[in-house]
Specification:
- It is a single chain.
- By secondary structure, the protein is α/β, with parallel strands linked by helices.
- The chain has a single domain, classed as TIM Barrel (Alpha-Beta Barrel), CATH 3.20.20.
- It is built from 9 helices and 9 strands.
- The strands form 2 sheets. The chain has a 5-stranded parallel sheet. A 4-stranded parallel sheet has the order 1-9-8-7.
- β4, α6 (119-128) and β5 form a beta-alpha-beta unit.
- α6 packs parallel to α7 and α8 crosses α9 (225-236).
């Protein structure tokens, strides 16, 4: 039986006060409080700047055993270098990230929407990645080909499923699933709701029965929709969580 983990893309949102975080809860307590409801989070901060070792160790120690951090790869590598000359940049990225230790889950490499397919470049980049779980999110439709899937398969990487392009990958790759929900009414906004999520929950349960793991993150943070949708999906998967409003520290 595989495992399905569900969480949100990031957790440091002031507009989640009164949604997930009780009013007055200090920001340093947000991650431990988040971990009462979810067993995974996608760390977006690592996309924008390298964390310090001290920050990573603080995050790691703030959550219980069994919690998993998905980490978003540095935009320096994906958006500025566009996967070129990656070795030195990867070393700098993993120096602190490695300190997540056993709580480190998949690393997500999100490519920019204007980056057109270059299979040789993708192949070289993936070849330099350390052992572990990796997912690639393509924002340009030209990547949605069997040839891209073949490159990902060669390196055991996952074709990230997301709804920005409103189309599924040509097929699944890499042995696990990495799914991102970006919002129903625009970037980071709009709620999916139980009925829209019900077919996906059934699909995930069937995937887990076949032994597959999945990581699912809601990025529709505006209005706290990500929190509600993540909890709704967990309930559909048979995982009950208390209501955040009734779970003050």
């Amino acid at each position: 039986m595989g495992r399905v983990r569900v969480g949100t893309s990031g957790y440091q949102y002031r507009h989640w006060r009164g949604v997930l975080y009780p009013e007055g809860l200090p920001q340093r307590e947000w991650l431990p409080h988040y971990a009462r409801f979810f067993d995974t989070v996608e760390m977006n901060a690592t996309f924008y700047r390298l964390p310090t070792v001290e920050a990573v160790e603080r995050w790691r120690s703030s959550v219980p055993r069994g919690f998993t951090f998905a980490v978003k790869g540095s935009r320096y590598l994906t958006h500025l270098k566009r996967l070129l000359d990656a070795e030195a940049g990867l070393d700098r990225f993993y120096d602190p990230v490695a300190h997540f230790g056993p709580k480190l889950g998949p690393v997500l490499w999100q490519l920019p929407p204007h980056m057109k397919p270059d299979l040789a470049r993708l192949d070289r980049f993936l070849a330099h990645l350390p052992a572990g779980r990796h997912a690639v999110e393509f924002r340009h439709e030209g990547w949605y080909t069997e040839e891209t899937c073949a490159v990902l398969d060669r390196h055991g990487a996952v074709f990230c499923e997301h709804d920005n392009l409103r189309r599924p990958p040509p097929r699944l790759t890499g042995g696990f699933r990495y799914v991102r929900f970006h919002g129903t009414t625009g970037r980071y906004s709009g709620r999916y709701g139980v009925e829209a999520l019900r077919p996906f929950a059934a699909e995930l349960l069937a995937w887990a029965v076949r032994g597959g793991d999945a990581f699912v993150y809601f990025n529709n943070d505006l209005g706290g929709h990500a929190v509600h949708d993540a909890l709704s999906l967990l309930a559909l998967l048979g995982v009950e969580r208390p209501s955040p409003s009734a779970h003050a520290p």
